[in-house]
Amino acid sequence: MVEQIKGDDVRIPLIGVRENIMKALLLSQYRHLEIVNLAIPEPAPDEVLVQIAACGVCGSDIHGYDGTSGRRIPPIVMGHEAAGKVASVGSRVVGLSPGDSVTFDSTIFCGQCHDCLRGKTSLCDHRQVLGVSCPEYRRPGAFAEYIAVRSGLSIACLVRSRLQRPPCSSRLRSPYMPFRMRTSVPITQF
Prior knowledge:
The chain is mostly beta strands. The protein is 6% helix and 35% strand. The chain has a domain at 42-171: Quinone Oxidoreductase, Chain A, domain 1, CATH 3.90.180.10.
């Protein structure tokens, strides 16, 4: 049962709320954030559902909050610098499994344009960013309990020590990213 927390940890059941609901921090208007219930995203066949463990607050989120960037048009769930654990995987995802600790690139790119084919995905003609809403597109971000992100090209497994190789790193090669994504960050809180 999903519950709403009130005051000194008094839990009140939310009537009519299904189990596939998550909490998210919504920029409902400039300079106003609120915790809301949203549906947990369903990952597409090439996506991974990540249960967020931590999400950083970027300077662009601050500018989105006060409205100075023009790239966070409310209502939007912001946040794009996050890490967590794989909750589920789409039917075409290989190399990642539920329980894997991951981080991800918040940039969504086409993989087909001239810049993507040269490995310069940050210059993609069709680039979008998680946690951004502008006149051209709207992508919910990671100030939430879950987020669905494209697998393979943008997810890196996190490792527990510098000597350990992530089990999925060898499968993260692509013509758009000719190197292996690996980190050497010790994980202590996952």
